[in-house]
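>> received
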Amino acid sequence: MSTAPAKISEYDAIAKVIKRYIDGARAGKGADMKPSFHEDATIFGYVGDDLFAGPIEKLFAWTDDNGAATGIHPQISSIDLIGTAATVRIEIENWYGHRFTDLFTLLKLDGGWKIMNKVFHLHA
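>> returned
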C-alpha cells in the first residue's frame, strides 16, 4: 500500500473540473457544466420538503431554466483524494439568492476526473 501524498497536479485537475461546473452556473448554461460530469452522474438533495433527485440532466435543465447566476460566490472548502477517487465540498453563496453546500464524488477515468454524484444541501 502506498502512503505517498497525492500530487498537487491531481488537486489542480480536480479543482479545474469544479471550476467548469461553477462557470456553467455563472453563465446559466447546463451544457457548460456537462463536461465536468460522467454521463451516468446523479444528483440528490432537498428543496424545502421536496426531494430533487435523479439523473444529472435535471441539474442542467434547472440551470438553463434559471439563467445566469452572475452573483455566485463559490469556495472549495475541501478536496479529499485517494488514488483514483475523490470527494469535494464547496460552499456557494448567492446562487439565485440561496446558499448551497455541494458534496461531490469524483472518479479518475481515462486519465481525467469526472463528477459521478452531486449531493447538495440548500440552507434555510
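>> The mean pLDDT is 95.
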